[in-house]
Amino acid sequence: MAVCVAVIAKENYPLYIRSVPTENELKFHYMVHTSLDVVDEKISAMGKALVDQRELYLGLLYPTEDYKVYGYVTNSRVKFVMVVDSSNTALRDNEIRSMFRKLHNSYTDVMCNPFYNPGDRIQSRTFDSMVTSMMIQVC
Amino acid sequence: MADAVLFEFLHTEMVAELWARDPDPGPGGQKMNLSVLEGMGFRVGQALGERLPREMLAFREELDVLKFLCKDLWVAVFQKQMDSLRTNHQATSLPQGTYVLQDNSFPLLIRMASGLQYLEEAPKFLAFTCGLLRGTLSTLGVKSLVTASVAALPTCKFQVVIQKS
Fold this sequence. Notes:
The complex is a heterodimer of chains A (139) and B (165). With 139 residues, chain A is an alpha+beta fold. Chain A is 40% helix and 24% strand. In chain B, helix 2 (26-51) packs parallel to helix 5 (122-139). Chain B has 5 helices and 4 strands. Chain B is of the alpha+beta class and 165 residues long. Classes of the chains: A alpha+beta (139), B alpha+beta (165).
């Protein structure tokens, strides 16, 4: 389903990034990095928007030939970016939304873990296996 | 309701434990103990700041965040809402970016006799909460300084000064 999942800290450095075809890892890092500008743009637009448009899910950030990039931002300004294969047309907006919600829930669990130091890279195995489950579903 | 009591007991024990070795540690030791409590509060605040607003809409401005503290955070921790929130818009005597949060019957103080007898002991019981507020604010992207003041016992005021970078 997802080919790359990334968690980006408030200060725009990666807390967690994983992609499924490991040989092209750098390409996905680059894609996620590029998407951060779009995320920032959407966040600043959100500040001016009307009350009912303030959602955490940012929707499609930008499509490329082979992939679609989706974004989500938490109230603490932590960003989640997900890259999805665009050949997978069966994937609805709602499913992406629920995947992000799952990711957010897992992230809060990581934050509430007393052994995790906020701001460090995420090394939790539970989080890792949750991301794996999101990636495997289609592949 | 039972978990509220558990938190109060735990908090009382945390305070007692820190002062157990040396009941009168002098000003340096006192500061040290207070900052330990503040640090613990900060970490809890970070976690709560991430967890509680999970289903909420995005915050637009500082005031939204402060309202969240008074309503949701206070209810989650103390099962009551903050009694008043004053901003620098209403009270011109305060410098820009200052908020005063007042609780007229602060649950961690209410167990002590009301009045002035135990006024000196109050700072120990407020350090954790100051850290809690500061931690939550920092997670939500607001850098701040939080101080607490007590005039008469169950009432206490938290002064939040936003640090503009």
